[in-house]
Amino acid sequence: LDGLDKLTELIKLQCNNNPLKTLDLSENKKLTGLTCSNNQLEALDVSANTKLTSLNCVSNQLKELNVSKNTNLTYLGC
After folding, report:
1. In the beta sheet, which residues pair with residue 34?
2. Which pTM was predicted?
3. Interatomic CA distance for residues 5 and 58, integer angstroms
4. pLDDT (average), residues 20-42
5. CA–CA dist 53, 74 (Å, integer)
6. Which of 2, 5, 52, 54 has CB 3.0 to 4.6 Å from 33, enough for a Cys bridge?
7. 76 forms bridges with which residues in the sheet?
8. How far lies 49's CA from each of 19, 23, 53, 62, 63, in Å?
């Protein structure tokens, strides 16, 4: 998904039910909610998204998911 690096004020993103293989959220540091389920993501790096409170990434090709820096998470669906 291109162009997200320009949306630095983005707080919620829903991009589920797409054929996404990559998702770069490194510049979206204000993101609090992310739904990216039902894609083809093989990796998801949310280490820069420390304000995330909700993350739903079910039905992808993820082999691992590191949320150790996401201490504000109250919902995690994977």
Report:
1. 13, 55
2. 0.92
3. 23
4. 96
5. 5
6. 54
7. 55
8. 22, 13, 10, 18, 19
- Asked if 42 and 23 touch (Cβ cutoff 8 Å), the reply is no
Q: Which residue has the higher pLDDT, 32 or 5?
A: 32
Segment 59-74 mean pLDDT: 97
Percent over 90 (pLDDT), the chain: 90
Query: In terms of C-beta density within 10 A (0-12 exposed, 13-18 middle, 19 or more buried), how is residue 60 classed?
Result: buried
Say yes or no to pLDDT of 1 above 70. no
> What is the CB neighbour count within 10 angstroms for residue 64?
6
Question: What's the chain's average pLDDT?
Answer: 95
- Measured distance CA(75)–CA(9) in Å, rounded: 22
SS3 4: helix
